[in-house]
Amino acid sequence: MPVSKETLIELYRTMLKIRLFEERVAEIYWEGKSPVFNIAADPIPGEMHLYIGEEAVATGVCAHLRPDDMVAGTHRSHGHYIAKGGDLKKLMAELFGKKTGLCQGKGGHMHLFDANLHFGCGGIIGAGIPHAVGAALAFKMQGKDNVAVSFFGDGAANIGAFHESLNLAAIWKLPVVFIVEDNLYAISVPKSKSTAVKSNAERAAAYGMPGVLVDGMDVMAVYEAAGEAIARARRGEGPSLIECLCYRYKGHFEGDPQLYKPEGEEEEWRKKDPIPNFRAKLIKEGILTEEEAAKIQAEVKALVDEAEKFARESPWPEPEEALKHVFL
Ligand SMILES: Cc1ncc(C[n+]2csc(CCOP(=O)(O)OP(=O)(O)O)c2C)c(N)n1
User: Tens digits of per-residue pLDDT, 194-218?
Assistant: First the structure.
């Protein structure tokens, strides 16, 4: 089916939102960092895992989702949250640990939760996979046509919960889509050293579900594959797996020296950068003019500026609130 001009522009805008948001986070993150933590000088405490380079994956998948569909993310989930329609101001404030953040500053960058968008993520590798299966079971039991999507890395695809989740989802024909983000590494471990099969898409057959490998640097390839899998899930035909081959341009975490990346590898993958390539394609095909593309860039930058200002000016949580919402 032809994709509308509005959808194509929206895909571009979403990828750009993720990129510009995270580039800003990368700048702010180093502000005042020192071995001795100083909350007054260091606005974003804790670790930081960025999604820069992988934007086409979250964008192409989430473009098919409704606010009441569920997404289970990872430790690298700013992009998943933004693509699901998340609020940049609340997201930035959460990274700053501020009271106005998504989780009132108590979650930080790895623990984002938004009940209105049915979105959650966390730092335990692979933990979101069974969560998505649980949400899919709930949708099925409630007779809804909603879908749950689980994003996770090639490393996470080797934990037991991955295999158990795929098995159960297939047996019970649950409306869930498993998205493997193969960015070549799990921290510093190359996929070739952790996974015997070439692609996780091959593993899907062992559980009786469709599995496809797509170019995760091409938002249209992801959009098309995800569209089929999500429509199939909504029709009650069960789960699917999509492996998206992609690349993270940053380290596993901010500060990672990335000594495990072979020389020249990043330069090769820079040629496939999903954002400038898609921009050039839209201009070439007459979907966008240079002026319109520049206007989108300025609009997205303004949103990021606004999010940063909001986070900086927001209050800290009260110390008395530290144990509120903690369930023991
Ligand atoms: C259960 C568990 N084991 C180990 C870790 C430490 N850890 C954090 S990130 C990571 C690698 C994840 O790699 P992958 O799933 O490929 O995702 P990517 O970081 O590439 O997005 C590991 C092992 C963890 N957080 N949780």
Answer: 999 999 999 999 999 999 999 999 9
Fold of the domain spanning 5-314:
Rossmann fold (3.40.50)
87-91: long-range contacts (C-beta < 8 A, 24 or more apart)? 87/114, 88/17, 88/21, 88/303, 88/304, 88/306, 88/307, 89/306, 89/307, 89/310, 89/311, 90/114, 91/21, 91/307
Kindly state the tokens that stand for 176.
Answer: 């869930």
Domain ranges of the chain: 5-314
Q: What is the position in ligand 1's atom list of the atom closest to the CA of 183? A: 20
Tokens 């895992």, located at residue: 49
What mean pLDDT comes out for the span 8-32?
A: 97
Determine the distance separating the centroid of ligand 1 and the alpha carbon of 2, expressed in angstroms. Answer: 37
Ligand 1 contact via 108 beta carbon (within 6 Å): no
Rounded average pLDDT over 288-307: 98
Say which residue the tokens 């692979």 belong to. Answer: 126
Across the range 38-61, mean pLDDT stands at 94
